[in-house]
Amino acid sequence: MHASEVSRGRNAGLGLALVSALAFGGSGVAAKPLILAGLDPLHVVWLRVAGAALVMLPVAWRHRALVRHRPALLVGFGLLAVAGVQACYFAAISRIPVGVALLVEYLAPALVLGWVRFVQRRPVSRAAAAGVVLAVGGLACVVEVWSGLGFDMAGLLLALGAACCQVGYFVLSDHGGDGEEPADPVGVIAYGLLIGALLLTAVARPWSMDWQVLAGSAEMDGTRVPAALLLAWIVLIATVAAYLTGVVSVRRLSPQVAGVVACLEAVIATVLAWVLLGEHLSAPQIVGGAVVLLGALIAQTSTPKAAAEAPVAGAAAVPADAKGKLSAGSRSA
User: What is the DSSP string of 11-45?
Assistant: First the structure.
């Protein structure tokens, strides 16, 4: 392959990774007005996951062999990476600012490194440990610990729950690529959404939802926006498009580059929440958020090569690698 073709492929991958980060970053901004308009956070999560599962249903049918070959992976991915992450994150943003919730969720790479070091008893680099310390210190600034944790404690715990679910997300992503026949990432995404939708149906009980909210409008910092338009954004852009562009981008980029781009998701979410929702952060919180992202970047990019090639350690080093293998994000978001 010529160098020019390689360059074009990487440029295309970078563009797709940016689109994925933008799409994931906008999920909370579109969801919060629906929550404030009267929808329960769990109902918004169910609408997002069920809508995306419906869109991905043809893909699931094409990869139906996964149900026989990797059932545990599909159930775990649906439970943690889809239902758990989304439910905890959306419940968190109903109580605390979107940017803060996503920054707390970005502690997940640090938690995975802790899993590698203390549970699996495998070494991590000093730089990675320094990245964890920076991320935790930055988070202390974000939540302003000196003022006695002015944020809603339940909201912070829910955001931390989303981070813990992300740990399972990364670990399952790593295991999904194991074996002689690795699970197709797009198929796992499709079945993860389907299983997540089924699990959330039992928990969220959508038949008790106030469906009339979707026929009306929601307020975004004083501007009325059709609720159906916000829901369409969440399902088609912030879920389906975000996952798929992320998968393709990581196939074109190295995991390290994709990991750096993925960190933009938190920045995008914070800026969009500032502009569209009027959620202004103080100067210490902005600085703390920058430190969280810096720590996440160091933790993701400094893992030794040997560790990056090993199971789970590679997922700990690069959350975008997990996104690329099985979903592209967020997360959360």
Answer: HHHHHHHHHHHHHHHTHHHHHHHHHHTT--HHHHH
DSSP state of 237: I
Residues 6 or more apart whose Cβ sits within 8 Å of residue 199: 78, 79, 83
Cα distances (Å, whole numbers) of residue 239 to 22, 23, 246, 253, 318: 11, 8, 11, 21, 20
Which backbone phi and psi does 117 adopt, to 5 degrees? Answer: -75, -45
List, as one string, the DSSP characters of 287-307.
HHHHHHHHHHHHHHH-S-HHH
This prediction's pTM: 0.74
For 181-318, strand residue ranges (E) read 217-220, 223-226
Pick the closest to residue 103 from 325, 291, 308 (CA basis): 291
The strand pair at 217-220 and 223-226 is best described as antiparallel
245 contacts 13 by C-beta, under 8 angstroms: no
Query: What are the backbone dihedrals phi and psi of residue 220, each rounded to the nearest 5 degrees, phi first?
Result: -115, 95
For 107-138, the pLDDT digits (tens) are: 776 677 777 777 777 777 777 777 777 877 77
Count of Cβ atoms closer than 10 Å to residue 10 Cβ: 14
What amino acid is encoded at 263 in this protein?
Answer: C
C-beta of residue 204 within 8 angstroms of C-beta of residue 90: no
The encoded tokens of residue 272 equal 């969009």
